[in-house]
Amino acid sequence: MGRIIAIANQKGGVGKTTTSINLSSCLADLGKKVLLVDIDPQGNATSGVGIIKQNLENTVYELFLDECTISECLTKSVVDNLNVLPSNVNLSGAEIDLIGVENREYILKNVLDQIKDLYDYIIIDCPPSLNILTVNAMTAADSVIVPIQCEYYALEGLSQLIHTINLIQDRLNNDLEIDGIVFTMYDSRTNLSSDVVENVKSNVHINIYDTVIPRNVRLAEAPSFGLPIHMYDGKSAGAVAYKNLAKEIIK
Q1: How far is CA 63 from CA 59, 90, 119, 192, in A?
Q2: Which of 27, 39, 41, 54: disulfide with 91, CB 3.0–4.6 Å?
Q3: pLDDT the model gives residue 209
């Protein structure tokens, strides 16, 4: 049975999509069967693994509205062992389209329940907001990984996210856990990054991954080529970090 992990933080620009793309790709590269679920209307996780999102006939949006089957939506990525439930801008209308739909919080869970036995890991890239799409992800997931950037205001919104996770645990998914926090955009040349890490460690009593994702030019370039970092530049600091994170999660 596949382990379902939501990558979530309602704060934008913290590396959610970068983490979703590269964690799922590195897990696949380590021989695991992986499904990447893109529920962000920007569709960047979709394009980041080599899928042209504008050309898609069936996406998560059609899946949510029961207008296509899972097999019609499943798409191959450029990475062996990595399939995708893709997204594009159409998904931005889901919030309105799902108003009044019975049990709308469970749509993604019901979809993934049908196929989770086929995968070792299912990674869900969440949008930068606490909307019905993120609620669906957390209702479907076994656990949540929270990326936090090593910048000022790193803790901004984290308490709200934890509160939301607690509400979902109480009302929709009793088994949901927080796997931990992963620091992103770490710059070893500045005191700020290390100060942020120490601040979070002293204020938040949640597991924190040993692996820290550095600020890395090659990591930023890779999405524009539709490649995960291990295929774009496997020797870069970003590639090494995400491989280590994948190994840490497998352990």
Answers
A1: 6, 12, 19, 43
A2: 41
A3: 94
Half-sphere exposure of 42 (CA within 13 A, CB side): 13
Residue 64's domain comprises 3-250
Contact 144, 122 (CB under 8 A): no
Decide: 216 and 39 in contact? Cβ < 8 Å: no
The 3-state DSSP composition of the chain as helix, strand, coil percent (nearest 5) reads 45, 15, 40
Domain count, the chain: 1
Cβ atoms of 51 and 125 within 8 Å: the answer is: no
* pLDDT per residue as tens digits for the range 196-247: 888 788 878 889 999 999 999 999 999 999 999 999 999 999 999 999 999 9
Half-sphere exposure of 38 (CA within 13 A, CB side): 33
Indicate which CATH number applies to the domain containing 34.
3.40.50.300
